[in-house]
């Protein structure tokens, strides 16, 4: 599988590193700007720690997982040490393959990816898009890396801002909903640990139903909604609060922000 370098082992870098180890990558070098962080992660995942510029030397595959604002600096640091023919996978929201190709030079293939945090438990989903110099073999190697973190789909790069709004930021919307449901449950008199357990397993079970092949969210919701019952009362309250429109507005804001990040 060759050597993998992970640049930036924060929340997402660590989640994808965990997936890479599950996928069988066993020669891994990690780098991070926070003092001591690379060493700590290297110990935990049986990897080697190195400064950013050196970490990419001899690597066949490089995963860039720093915040978009810090990416130009990281690109500058790694560009001179990259091996010809290396594949660089970036998960930075909003940063285009064209920008990365400009900074990294003509000898590497760039793949843009948008993962999400359930990658930590192998239940993520990542959308990948090929840069202009990334052929099928580069996409394949990126897919192998990311498959350890969950499902992988290939999309045209023009859809990456939308994907970011759906699945990249998506877990946060569900945690927000979970918080609101737990708090409301507590308000209705249920102890917080019990309310949390009820909400977590309800989300897990509902996601399982939704993941079935023939699932349609409308049908699934209708099956819960008995005539004149409790769910009908709840959905009427959600509609009165224009929650559906709010979700659409939130996702448009996320996609817009992803676009803005590409201009920074
Ligand atoms: N979190 C998420 O749900 C998702 C995040 N992403 C993308 O993943 C990327 C990382 O996000 P996230 O993990 O949340 O951020 P974090 O801040 O948790 O992690 C980024 C890490 O990179 C380090 N770093 C910064 N500059 C360098 C450098 N030059 N060399 C090595 N390490 C460096 C940071 O150190 P320090 O703290 O000292 O700056 C930090 O530890 C972002 O681009 C984001 O858009 C994509 C999908 C989902
Ligand atoms: O909030 C962010 O910018 C990153 C990208 C998608 C999820 N987290």
Automatic annotation (TrEMBL):
> Can you list the GO cellular component terms from the UniProt entry?
cytoplasm
Q: What class of enzyme is it?
A: oxidoreductase
Ranges where the Pyrroline-5-carboxylate reductase catalytic N-terminal domain occurs: 3-94
Q: In which pathway does it act?
A: Amino-acid biosynthesis; L-proline biosynthesis; L-proline from L-glutamate 5-semialdehyde: step 1/1
Name where it mostly resides: cytoplasm
Q: Which gene encodes it?
A: proC
Question: Which is one Pfam family of this protein?
Answer: P5CR_dimer
Biological role stated in the UniProt entry: Catalyzes the reduction of 1-pyrroline-5-carboxylate (PCA) to L-proline.
Looking up NCBIfam families in the UniProt record yields: proC
**Highest taxon of the lineage:** Bacteria
Q: Which InterPro entries match?
A: 6-PGluconate_DH-like_C_sf, NAD(P)-bd_dom_sf, P5C_Rdtase_cat_N, P5CR-like_CS, P5CR_dimer, Pyrroline-COOH_reductase
Signal sequence span is: none
In Gene Ontology terms, what is one molecular function of this protein?
A: pyrroline-5-carboxylate reductase activity
Q: Where in the cell is it found?
A: Cytoplasm
Catalytic activity, reaction form: L-proline + NAD(+) = (S)-1-pyrroline-5-carboxylate + NADH + 2 H(+); L-proline + NADP(+) = (S)-1-pyrroline-5-carboxylate + NADPH + 2 H(+)
Q: What is this protein called?
A: Pyrroline-5-carboxylate reductase
Question: Where in the numbering of this chain does the Pyrroline-5-carboxylate reductase dimerisation domain appear?
Answer: 157-261
Q: What is its EC number?
A: 1.5.1.2
Residue numbers binding NADP(+): 7-12, 65-68
Concerning its family, UniProt says: Belongs to the pyrroline-5-carboxylate reductase family.
Which keywords, in A-to-Z order, does the entry hold? Answer: Amino-acid biosynthesis, Cytoplasm, NADP, Oxidoreductase, Proline biosynthesis
Q: Which GO biological process categories is it annotated with?
A: L-proline biosynthetic process
**Is Cytoplasm among the key words of this record?**
yes
């Amino acid at each position: 599988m060759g050597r993998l370098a992970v640049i930036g082992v924060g929340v997402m870098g660590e989640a994808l590193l965990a997936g890479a180890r599950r996928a069988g990558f066993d020669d891994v070098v990690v780098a991070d700007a926070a003092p001591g962080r690379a060493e700590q992660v290297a110990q935990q995942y049986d990897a080697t720690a190195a400064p950013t510029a050196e970490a990419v030397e001899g690597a066949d595959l490089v995963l860039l997982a720093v915040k978009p604002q810090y990416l130009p600096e990281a690109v500058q640091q790694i560009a001179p040490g990259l091996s010809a023919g290396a594949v660089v996978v970036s998960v930075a929201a909003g940063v285009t393959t064209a920008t990365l190709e400009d900074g990294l030079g003509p000898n590497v293939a760039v793949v843009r990816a948008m993962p999400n945090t359930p990658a930590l438990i192998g239940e993520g989903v990542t959308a990948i898009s090929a840069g202009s110099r990334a052929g099928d073999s580069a996409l394949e190697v990126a897919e192998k890396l990311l498959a350890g973190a969950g499902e992988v789909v290939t999309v045209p790069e023009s859809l990456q801002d939308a994907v970011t709004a759906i699945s990249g930021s998506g877990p946060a919307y569900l945690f927000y909903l979970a918080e609101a449901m737990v708090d409301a449950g507590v308000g209705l008199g249920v102890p917080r640990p019990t309310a949390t357990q009820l909400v977590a397993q309800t989300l897990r079970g509902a996601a399982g139903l939704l993941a079935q092949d023939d699932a349609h969210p409308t049908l699934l919701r209708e099956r819960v909604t008995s005539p004149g019952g409790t769910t009908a009362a709840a959905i009427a309250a959600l509609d009165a609060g224009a929650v559906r429109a709010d979700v659409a507005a939130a996702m448009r804001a996320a996609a817009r922000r992803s676009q803005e990040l590409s201009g920074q």
